[in-house]
Amino acid sequence: QVQLVESGGGSVQAGGSLTLSCVASGYTSTLYMGWFRQTPGKEREGVAVADIGGRATYYADSVEGRFTISRERASTLALQMTGLTPDDTAVYYCGERGSRVVSAPLAPGKYPYWGQGTQVTVSS
Q: Which of 54, 77, 81, 103 is deepest in the core (most CB within 10 A)?
């Protein structure tokens, strides 16, 4: 059984920084791991994804240049967030997929395993 646990969320002023972490356990190849976020009344959206070695990365246009995804090892994932704005306020989820994504790696529907999420709140 795959389990994903996120941490690092909190409250920060606009322009500030936060780093989120995710740890995966249980049987999984963890080929792809990524960060997704959801705000009230909206569908979950992809933020950033990395392959198992962190060599291939994908970012949403809204965060590219501000957020950096990294994988220190196969079962750990981090998201360094800088220049945060109130639009970044959301619950951030860690997702995992055990096989290669041919296209649209940021699509939440392609990830079968999820953590419980960690809240990020950015105030003006």
A: 77
Digit-coded pLDDT (tens) for 47-76: 999 998 888 999 999 999 999 999 987 789
Q: Which SS3 state, helix, strand or coil, does residue 3 take?
A: strand
Q: Tell me the C-alpha distance between 97 and 57, whole Å.
A: 14
Three-state helix/strand/coil letters over 57-122: EEECCCCECCEEEECCCCCEEEEEECCCCHHHCEEEEEEEECCCCCCCCCCHHHCCEECCCEEEEE
Tokens linked to 99: 């096989």
Phi, psi at residue 86, to the nearest 5°? -55, -25
β-sheet bridge partners, residue 88: none
From residue 87, how far is each of 52, 65, 81 by CA, in Å? 29, 15, 13
Pairing mode, strands 76-81 and 18-25: antiparallel
| Token pair belonging to 87 | 């639009």
- Rounded Cα–Cα distance for residues 5 and 7 (Å): 7
